[in-house]
Write a sequence for this structure.
C-alpha cells in the first residue's frame, strides 16, 4: 500500500475552501442521492436484452442503404444469444435509437414489441425523474446549468468518499500554495473542461455524467505541474517488519503515470458495446485544463511562502 | 540456493559497494509496479478492448485465447522494454531511483550495457513463470543476487550509508529447504499433469464444446424441417422438449425476414405462456389475425374452445393434439391408429407410451407388457422412466399385494434420471403394496416433497395408513382432491376411492368424478373402481350412478374387455346393456 501523506495541510485554517467545497458536495449528495433506482423491467433479463438487440439490429439495418449491403449478408442467419446481448447492450448507449424506437415500425413478435415499447416509455419517464438525470450532464443535453451542477453530484457513498479523500489531499495542497480563489476557479473551470472532454470524446450514451472527477483531475494536474519540483511524502506499508513500512518522498509528477496514463489506457480499453461506469474522458478533459492552469500559475502567480509541513528533498 | 553458484566471483573484500537491503528492493519493486502498470495497461489497451467484447460474444473461441496470449506477450515485452531502458540509461528503475538503489555490473561497478540489461530483464520475467520462487534467492544468496543478477553479472547496491550485511545462515538454510520442497512439489505436479494429459489425448477426451450443441436453435428439431416452430411445439406437447426449445424457435420465426411462420410463432408462445391466461389469450387471438387460413389458426380456435375439433391434421402439432384429444375422450383404438403415423425421431418415447397405453386400455395386458419389455431396452432414460412409472402404477392398480412384483416397478429403481412426481408415487405405492417402507427410499424424495407440499401430504397418508383412522385418511384425501391439481389430485382421488367408507364420501367422490371433463384411461379406471366398490359394498344406487357416468361407447368398450378377460360386469339396473361385437 502506498498513499500520499500530506500532514498538516488538512486543517481548516490552511485549507478553508477545500473543506467548504467538500461540505457542499456532501450536503448536495445527501439531498439528491437516489437510493431507489427505477425498476429496470426493460433490461432486467437476458431475454429482454436479446429482444432489444434484435430491434436495434432492425433499426440499424433501416439506416443502411440497400446498395451498401454486401450480397453475402444473410440477415436470417442466426446469431448466438451472447452476440445479441452485446448488440442489445450497445443499443442502450444510443440515444437516437431510444428516442426513435417508440415510433419505429419493427417487425417480429408484435405483442412482445408492443410490451417492449411500453416498458421503454415507463423506463424513460422514471429515468427523467431521477436527480442524476435532472442535474447530471447528458451528451445530448442543452441545459447550461448542468455543466456546473454535475460536479457536485455523486453516484454513491464510495464515489463520494473516494473523490473527497483525494480532493482533501490535493485541494488542500493547491489552496495552500495558490490560494482559495485559484482553487475555486480551477475546480469549476476544470469541471467544465471535464464535461467538454466527456462531450467530445465519449460515445453517445443515455447515462448522465455526474461526479467531481473532472474537477478533481484539474486540481491534481494543476498541483502536479505547479509544484513539479517538489517531492511529497507517501506512506508505504508492505509488512510490519522494520524496513517494510515508512515514508518515501516522490515527485508530484508521479500523479501523471499513476492517474492519467491509467485513465487513457482505460479509455482505450473500453469497448463501445459495453461502455464503462467511469467517465475517463472527463478525467482527461480536467487534466488538460489542470496542466494549463498549472503552467499559468508557475508563470503568472508567485506561490505563497507558506510551505507544506514536509521538507523538500533533493 | 540449491546448486553451487558457478558465477560467483571470488574476491569481494575491500569493495566500496554496499549491498541493497531486501526491504528497499521490495519497496522499489512496489513503486515500479505502481508506475509501470498504467504504461503497460496503455500498451495492451487495444487488445483488451477486443478481449472484453470477445469474452461475451465468443467465450470459447480460439480467437479469444489468441488475443489473451497476445495481450500477455505484449505486457511482458513492455516490462522487458521498460526495465531495459531504465537500467541501461540510469542504472535503476524508477522505484530503485527513489530508494537510492542502483543496478551495476559486478566487475568495474559501471552501468550495465543494453544487452546485459535486456538479459537481466528477460530472465527476471522468466522467473515469474516459476511462481516467483527463484526470487527467494535474494534472501539466501550471499550477495543477494538471484538468477537474473547472476546471469547478467550485475548486483543491486545502495547509495545510502547503511548497507545490507548479507543473509543470516538461518535465512539461507530456510530458503534452501523451501526451494527443495517446492521443486519436488512442482516436479510431481508437472509429471502427473503431463501423464494425465497424455492419457486423455490417447483416449480422445478433448471434445470441443463447439461440436456439441453449437446451434443457436433447438437441437431436437430437424435441421431440414420446413416448419421448425410446428415441430418444436409438437415435441413440447409430447413432453419431448422443454419450453426453451419452443421459445427459441418461435423467436427465430419472428425475427427472420420471411414471416411465413409468424402465426405459428404466436401459437407456440400462447401454449408455452398458458400459465399467464391473459397474455396467452392475446397471443391466441393474434394467430388468426396473422394468418386466418393457416392450421395454426385452427389450432388456436381449438385451444380457445371456439371449435370442437380439428378438421385437418397435417402439421405435427395438430397430430399430437389430436392424439391427446382422442386419449382424453377414451378413444383408444383411434389413438392406436393415429400414433402409427407419428414418426419423428424425438417422438419415439411418446409413440411407445401411447401404444402400450392402448394395449393396456384394451386389456391386451400381455401385449402391453411385451411392448414394454422391448421398449425399455431401446429408450433413453427419461422416456424409460416415464413409461416404467406409468406401467408400475397400472400394474399396482390391477393387483396391490405383497406378492405382486411388477417388472416396471423394478425398472424404476434402475433409472438414474431426475425423479418426477409420477415416478416417486409409483415407487411409494410399490412399497405400500408390499407393506414395506424403507426410510432411505423415502428420503430420496425429500426435495420433491418439499417442492410439492400436497404430494408430501399424500405420501404421508399412504405411509401412515396404519396409524391413522379411516376417517382421518378420508378427510385428508378429500381435502387434497379439492385443493390440489394435476397428478396429485388424480392420485389422491384414486386413493380416496380405494378407502371410501361413508355415504358422504361416496357422494363427494361422485361429484368430483363428474367434474372431470376428460375421459381418458385414468378417469375410466377410477369410475370403474368406484363402480366395483359400490357394488361390493351393496350400494346399488351409487353403482348405477357411476355406471351412468360412462357413455355407451365406454360401456361397450368395457363389455369387450370383460368378455376378453372372461369376467362379468356387475349387474346394474339402469345401465344400458349393449351387445358386444
Amino acid at each position: 500500500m502506498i498513499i500520499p501523506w500530506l500532514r498538516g495541510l488538512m486543517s481548516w485554517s490552511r485549507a478553508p475552501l477545500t473543506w467548504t467545497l467538500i461540505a457542499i458536495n456532501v450536503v448536495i449528495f445527501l439531498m439528491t442521492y437516489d437510493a431507489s433506482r427505477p425498476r429496470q423491467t426493460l433490461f432486467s433479463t437476458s431475454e429482454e436484452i436479446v429482444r432489444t438487440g434484435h430491434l436495434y439490429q432492425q433499426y440499424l439495418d433501416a439506416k443502411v442503404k440497400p446498395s451498401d449491403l454486401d450480397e453475402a449478408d444473410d440477415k436470417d442467419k442466426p446469431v448466438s444469444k451472447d452476440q445479441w446481448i452485446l448488440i442489445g447492450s450497445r443499443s442502450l448507449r444510443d440515444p437516437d435509437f431510444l428516442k426513435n424506437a417508440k415510433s419505429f415500425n419493427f417487425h417480429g413478435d408484435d405483442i412482445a414489441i408492443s410490451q417492449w415499447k411500453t416498458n421503454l416509455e415507463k423506463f424513460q419517464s422514471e429515468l427523467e425523474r431521477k436527480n442524476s438525470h435532472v442535474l447530471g450532464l447528458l451528451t445530448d443535453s442543452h441545459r447550461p446549468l448542468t455543466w456546473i451542477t454535475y460536479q457536485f453530484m455523486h453516484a454513491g457513498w464510495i464515489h463520494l468518499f473516494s473523490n473527497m479523500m483525494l480532493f482533501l489531499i490535493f485541494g488542500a495542497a493547491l489552496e495552500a500554495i495558490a490560494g482559495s480563489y485559484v482553487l475555486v476557479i480551477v475546480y469549476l473551470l476544470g469541471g467544465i473542461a471535464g464535461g467538454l472532454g466527456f462531450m467530445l470524446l465519449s460515445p453517445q450514451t443515455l447515462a448522465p455524467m455526474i461526479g467531481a472527477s473532472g474537477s478533481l483531475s484539474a486540481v491534481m494536474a494543476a498541483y502536479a505541474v505547479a509544484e513539479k519540483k517538489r517531492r511529497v511524502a507517501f506512506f508505504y506499508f508492505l509488512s510490519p517488519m522494520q524496513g517494510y513500512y515508512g515514508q518515501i518522498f516522490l515527485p508530484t509528477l508521479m500523479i501523471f503515470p499513476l492517474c492519467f496514463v491509467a485513465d487513457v489506457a482505460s479509455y482505450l480499453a473500453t469497448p463501445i458495446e459495453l461502455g464503462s461506469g467511469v467517465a475517463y474522458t472527463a478525467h482527461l478533459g480536467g487534466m488538460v485544463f489542470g496542466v494549463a492552469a498549472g503552467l499559468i500559475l508557475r508563470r503568472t502567480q508567485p506561490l505563497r511562502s507558506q510551505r507544506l509541513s514536509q521538507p523538500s528533498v533533493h | 540456493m540449491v546448486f553451487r553458484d558457478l558465477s560467483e566471483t571470488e574476491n569481494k573484500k575491500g569493495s566500496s559497494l554496499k549491498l541493497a537491503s531486501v526491504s528497499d528492493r521490495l519497496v522499489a519493486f512496489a513503486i515500479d509496479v505502481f508506475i509501470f502498470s498504467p504504461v503497460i495497461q496503455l500498451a495492451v489497451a487495444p487488445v483488451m478492448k477486443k478481449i472484453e467484447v470477445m469474452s461475451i460474444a465468443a467465450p470459447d473461441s480460439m480467437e479469444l485465447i489468441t488475443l489473451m496470449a497476445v495481450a500477455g506477450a505484449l505486457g511482458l515485452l513492455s516490462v522487458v522494454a521498460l526495465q531495459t531502458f531504465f537500467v541501461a540509461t540510469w542504472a535503476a528503475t524508477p522505484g530503485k531511483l527513489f530508494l537510492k538503489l542502483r543496478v551495476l555490473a559486478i566487475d568495474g561497478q559501471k552501468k550495465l550495457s543494453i544487452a546485459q540489461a535486456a538479459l537481466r530483464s528477460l530472465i527476471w520475467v522468466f522467473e515469474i513463470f516459476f511462481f516467483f520462487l527463484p526470487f527467494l534467492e535474494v534472501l539466501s544468496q550471499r550477495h543477494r543476487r538471484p538468477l537474473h543478477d547472476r546471469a547478467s553479472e550485475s548486483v543491486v547496491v545502495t547509495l545510502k550509508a547503511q548497507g545490507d550485511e548479507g543473509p543470516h545462515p538461518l535465512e539461507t538454510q530456510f530458503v534452501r529447504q523451501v526451494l527443495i520442497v517446492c521443486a519436488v512439489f512442482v516436479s510431481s505436479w508437472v509429471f502427473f499433469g503431463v501423464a494425465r494429459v497424455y492419457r486423455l489425448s490417447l483416449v480422445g477426451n478433448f471434445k470441443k464444446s463447439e461440436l456439441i450443441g453449437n446451434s443457436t436453435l433447438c437441437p431436437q428439431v430437424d435441421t431440414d424441417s420446413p416448419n421448425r416452430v410446428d415441430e418444436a411445439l409438437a415435441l413440447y406437447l409430447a413432453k419431448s422438449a422443454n419450453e426453451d426449445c419452443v421459445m427459441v424457435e418461435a423467436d427465430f420465426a419472428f425475427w427472420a425476414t420471411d414471416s411465413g411462420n409468424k402465426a405459428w410463432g404466436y401459437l407456440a408462445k400462447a401454449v408455452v405462456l398458458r400459465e399467464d391466461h391473459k397474455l396467452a389469450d392475446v397471443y391466441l387471438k393474434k394467430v388468426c389475425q396473422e394468418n386466418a387460413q393457416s392450421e395454426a389458426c385452427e389450432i388456436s380456435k381449438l385451444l380457445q374452445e371456439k371449435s370442437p375439433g380439428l378438421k385437418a391434421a397435417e402439421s405435427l402439432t395438430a397430430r399430437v393434439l389430436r392424439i391427446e384429444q382422442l386419449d382424453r375422450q377414451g378413444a383408444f383404438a383411434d389413438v392406436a391408429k393415429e400414433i402409427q403415423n407419428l414418426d419423428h425421431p424425438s417422438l419415439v418415447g411418446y409413440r411407445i407410451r401411447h401404444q402400450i397405453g392402448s394395449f393396456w386400455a384394451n386389456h391386451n395386458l400381455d401385449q402391453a407388457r411385451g411392448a414394454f419389455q422391448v421398449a425399455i431396452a431401446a429408450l433413453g432414460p427419461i422416456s424409460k422412466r416415464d413409461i416404467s412409472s406409468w406401467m408400475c402404477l397400472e400394474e399396482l392398480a390391477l393387483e396391490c399385494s405383497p406378492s405382486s412384483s411388477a417388472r416396471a416397478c423394478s425398472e424404476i429403481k434402475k433409472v438414474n434420471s431426475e425423479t418426477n412426481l409420477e415416478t416417486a408415487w409409483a415407487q411409494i405405492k410399490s412399497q405400500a403394496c408390499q407393506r414395506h417402507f424403507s426410510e432411505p427410499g423415502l428420503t430420496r424424495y425429500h426435495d420433491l416433497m418439499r417442492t410439492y407440499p400436497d404430494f408430501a401430504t399424500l405420501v404421508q397418508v399412504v405411509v401412515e395408513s396404519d396409524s391413522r383412522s379411516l376417517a382421518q385418511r378420508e378427510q385428508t384425501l378429500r381435502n387434497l382432491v379439492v385443493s390440489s391439481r394435476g397428478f396429485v389430485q388424480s392420485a389422491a382421488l384414486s386413493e380416496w376411492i380405494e378407502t371410501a367408507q361413508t355415504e358422504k364420501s361416496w357422494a363427494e367422490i361422485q361429484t368430483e368424478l363428474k367434474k372431470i371433463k376428460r375421459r381418458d384411461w385414468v378417469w375410466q379406471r377410477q369410475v370403474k373402481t368406484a363402480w366395483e366398490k359400490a357394488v361390493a359394498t351393496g350400494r346399488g344406487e351409487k353403482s348405477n350412478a357411476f355406471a351412468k357416468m360412462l357413455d355407451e361407447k365406454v360401456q361397450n368398450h368395457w363389455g369387450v374387455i370383460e368378455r376378453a378377460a372372461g369376467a362379468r360386469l356387475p349387474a346394474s339396473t339402469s345401465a344400458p346393456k349393449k351387445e358386444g361385437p
Remarks:
- Chain B has 28 helices and three strands.
- Chain B touches chain A through 48 residues (CB under 8 Å).
- Strands of chain B lie at 18-19, 101-105, 154-158.
- Confidence is low (pLDDT under 50) at residues 1-15, 205-214, 572-581 of chain B.
